[in-house]
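Worked Example 4.2. Consider the chain below.
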Amino acid sequence: MFPKFTFVFGGAASGKSAYAEQLVVSSGKTRFYLATSQVFDAEMQAKIDRHILQRGAGWHTIEAPLELAETLSELTADDVCLIDCATMWLSNHLLAESDLEPAQDRLLDAIADTPASVVVVSNEVGHGIVPDNALARKFREAQGRLNIALAAKADLVISVTVGLPQLLKGQLP
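Applying the procedure from the previous section yields the following structure tokens:
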């Protein structure tokens, strides 16, 4: 049986999104992709285009850079939703100067309340040095807190490093 909530995390370009996509495809459910990135330049557009090609056909893509709860509330038990990624979602909220705690609470509540299975991808940012500026330090701390909260609520937690998944919590479907 496919888990209700799966959390996949790892470093940048670690293979976490590709792994999460494979998990979602293996579910056999109707696939939704909640894209949290925003296009501000050609480099980001090229990255998004590569991700779309990598995913292939059979996905319903919804752009949701800030609010995910409404989309999650519309899904059914026959659906699986990949949120890629929590890091971009958090960055968007930081740049919009949102109050992060209520935004995080809304996200966690929406994941718990949706009847769909949910897979969330996120970056591990705590393995580096202490950033040299206040915004970067605020982001690192907020990302750490978000990842801890997501992992605590998830049924299945997988760390991906150099394309290799490591099961940390739960059982693979």
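The chain has one domain: 5-169. The two ends are 6 Å apart (CA to CA). Compare this with Example 4.1 before moving on.
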